[in-house]
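User: quick one, fold this
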Amino acid sequence: MTVVPAPMASAAQVAAPTPLPDPFYSAQPNLKGRHAGDILQVRGRENPPGFFDIKTYQLKFVTTDVNGKPMAAITTLMLPNRRVADGPLLSFQHVINAVGLQCAPSQALWTSDPNLAIREAPALNVALQKGWAVAIPDHLGPRSAYGAALLGGRITLDGIRAVRAFSAANLAKSKVAMAGYSGGGMATAWAAALAPTYAPELKMVGAAFGGVPMDLIKMAQGLGYDNPHPAFGLAFAAAIGLAREYPKQIPMADHLTPLGHAMLNEMRNACTNDILRIGAGHSAKQVAEGGKQVFEDPVARKVVQDNSLALFPGHPQIPVFEWHSPIDGLIPVDAIDATDARYCRAGVRMEMVRIPTPDHMTAAVLGVLPALNYLSDRFDGKPAPSNC
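Assistant:
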């Protein structure tokens, strides 16, 4: 839930999400001279339902878009009442498979809609009771750019910078770890890979990410590229999100069939369940004029490749816990295995866990506590294991 609305041209092209009525998310008028991680505004919030013995804040901060231009973003910070100064800080990137601003964590943490509930709340409460501060960024950015994973990595890192700069939190010298699964795993994994060059000053001790779609081209091909698919909505939503961030490279609305335009308009503010409902049983051939050829455009494909971590030459320089199901029916597992192997060859300390369930989100639940235990050991300074 970041705060700079899409330019009018972009809004007309790709059906920008409806802005939130909360003035905290209104556009920041002038970011000239501001630096990534600078705090723009802070407010206290009542604690989200299900969280206790903490104080909650929201920070508006400066980050950079895919063109390196400054924009504002939001992170929600939970501080345990019983904690020590400069204690552990966990940046947790929640799963956000959505193109509507109301689906972001800064909204969903307080929702009464069971479909938007933060299901990791019990695990996060465990972390908070350990005395860890927990930051949850709105990592999809101001246009809810689902699929623009590189942007999510930058927002994650700049959110950490902002939290460490928030004097009331006393986290300036904290050790930092990151965690996330699926869409949140994309932001986490990208942040880990970008950190050595984008935010080298952050004192990272480890990252845990799971169920990451490492190759977005392969994922799109598996979700209704050639034939109708029940989860085609996820591929279509990712196309919307990427078109919002890269309107010149992906003029999506110029190449849609009447069905495609109808789906775009219906999906523009959708969260996961509606995305799946709207897209169920459809394919790229049905929504694009001339069939899927628009998806073969080399400029558009390069954007998708640029947001695919499997094709990014950099690698983390911190220990990594990576988990996924080897029989996951939603994401391309071979791209995960290839990325893990490349990281191992680069010398990354990798603990890789395979959870044999065909259900993507079941693997998330089964892996989150082992992931947090792994990060606890990194905070404690224990040597990182590796099963490379």
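User: anything notable?
Assistant: The first strand starts at residue 39 and ends at 45.
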